[in-house]
Specification:
This protein has six helices and no strands. By secondary structure, the chain is mostly helical. Helix 3 runs parallel beside helix 4. It comes from Pelecanoides urinatrix (Common diving petrel). Keywords: Coiled coil, Phosphoprotein. This is SMTL1 protein. Belongs to the smoothelin family.
Length: 152
């Protein structure tokens, strides 16, 4: 389990980079039931999109994302021509994070909220940072029409 200061540093890096905490939830994830329901829905969406990918078992917003492969699998599920998922190794964390974040930025237009160096430095990613990044990725994929949402 990472030291509290490492978790705080991860959150602080995001806040510093973007000038303050984000307000509100990602569009299209708003549902009655509060933040816990939104988190559960986002986690289930990630789980469903990454199901069947080798070395990926999404169970939470922290340890499940530690090798970078869950990010890669999620992006590969939308952009299978972007890279060869089968060639990725769980131990190549720096490469996996760099590939995922670059793909997300280039293909989905997702803001680079997470830094590769921060992710590699922490043995277990900060859940709030991962959750925030995944909300942004989801929002970008919705904006590109790659994720269908129910109309209200």
């Amino acid at each position: 389990r990472p030291r509290a200061s490492a978790r705080v540093q991860g959150r602080s890096a995001i806040l510093e980079k973007f000038g303050g905490a984000a307000t509100g939830l990602a569009p299209h994830l708003r549902r009655a039931g509060g933040t816990a329901t939104v988190k559960a829905m986002l986690l289930e969406w990630c789980r469903a999109r990454t199901r069947g990918y080798q070395h990926v078992d999404v169970q939470n917003f922290s340890g499940s994302w530690g090798s970078g492969l869950a990010f890669c699998a999620l992006l590969h599920s939308f952009f299978p021509d972007a890279f060869d998922y089968g060639s990725l190794e769980p131990g190549a964390r720096r490469h996996n994070f760099a590939l995922a974040f670059t793909t997300a930025e280039e293909r989905a237009g997702c803001a680079p909220l997470l830094e590769v160096e921060d992710m590699v430095r922490l043995p277990v990613p900060d859940a709030k940072c991962v959750y925030t990044y995944l909300q942004e990725l989801y929002r970008c994929l919705v904006a590109k029409g790659l994720v269908k949402t129910k109309k209200r």
